[in-house]
Amino acid sequence: MFSEKEIQKIRSQFPILKKKIYSNPLVYVDNAATTQKPIEVIQASQNYYYTMNSNVHRGLHYLSHKATLHVENVRKKIQKFINAKHSSEIIFTKGTTESINLVASSMDAFIKKGDEIIISQIEHHSNIVPWQILCKKKGAILKIIPIYENGFLKLKDFEFLISKKTKIVSISHISNVLGIINPVKNIIDKSHEYGAIVLIDGAQVPSNLDLDVQDLNVDFYVFSAHKMYGPTGIGILYGKNQILNKLDPYQFGGEMIKNVSFNKTTYSDLPFKFEAGTPNIEGIIVWGYAIDFIKKIGVSNIQSYKKKLLMYAIQRLSSIDGIQLYGETKDLSKRSGIISFNLNQLHCFDVGSVLDRLGIAVRTGHLCAQPLMNFFKVSGMIRVSFSVYNTFKEIDYLFEGILKAKKILLN
Ligand SMILES: *Cc1c(COP(=O)(O)O)cnc(C)c1O
């Protein structure tokens, strides 16, 4: 738990938080969409162009060598951050979405007619559509793990769905709508009993849970930098060496080849086989500073602080007459700092617009999870998601804001 002074110190590292929105202080609670960036991250971006800009893995010259060194250091930093066995198991991508697409495309050769792929009811569209397309192309079958009313996966049904026909299981670690932490270790172990390969969508995880891909024994793990205080347009695919080695590349071009002639091309070794073209060099290098920022505060400190914010917010919001909070609200041990709700019969966009005028940034709409919206029989929700720089006072302000929205919109 942070003292008031510590929180103010953390806040002072995020310049954007000083901004006024329609002459109100900004209350930024859309962190599940993207987090704000601390000064060291912003400055690292400028510093890169001031001192290092050049292409990597190609030039022999000083700058290219320096940029390459920094890129490869960040790869090692991420390896350590998630406890991967080898740095060559870290593939840089545009982000979570591209990582899942990479796996879905590259797994193509291993999927045949009648095979099955399992996802769940709560997935983000990024973890639905690539599998749907793959199934359609190969005549495979997409199976869905259903959920209880509180948003928890029906694990009994999963045990019923999984079989020798299951080739891939792809599940989110933390739901971007309900904040529910799924029991992925159980799912991974069970899937392996049947020889299925498991991908975990960890987009909401890196500053919320300690990550250990070896302990999870997961085959693929994916996330983006921009939801963990880093820049947009960069993320990773973690994959076990022995699996990545068996897959064909996803894109073709420079950087990923060993030899090219017009008759035959041979591919580079990992990780470069999957990194065609000039990568997001700046993004990779700057991401390293975001990881340092998280490590300085400590993932478990961030996690327990966000849990306190969640508990307080659930307590305050649930006292509002006519509010519908989604997902488990009693036992919060399996939830991270995300709350989605609706207010009376009001449209989520109307509520969001009133909050916006008060300087409160929330997410509204289907939250990239239409099948989950269908489950709750709504077209959209209002989502509040916390970060390390949010405060209890902001939750009070949000509470007042929701009351105001009710008053304005219901009259
Ligand atoms: C944000 C998010 C994604 C997509 O991440 P991008 O950075 O937009 O590629 C996928 N899954 C979950 C659970 C997310 O929260």
UniProtKB/TrEMBL annotation:
Residues 27-398 form the Aminotransferase class V domain. InterPro entries: Aminotrans_V_dom, Aminotrans_V_PyrdxlP_BS, Cys_dSase_SufS, Cysteine_dSase, PyrdxlP-dep_Trfase, PyrdxlP-dep_Trfase_major, PyrdxlP-dep_Trfase_small. The keyword Transferase applies. Keywords: Pyridoxal phosphate, Transferase. PROSITE patterns: AA_TRANSFER_CLASS_5. Its cofactor is pyridoxal 5'-phosphate. Catalyzes the removal of elemental sulfur and selenium atoms from L-cysteine, L-cystine, L-selenocysteine, and L-selenocystine to produce L-alanine. This is Cysteine desulfurase.
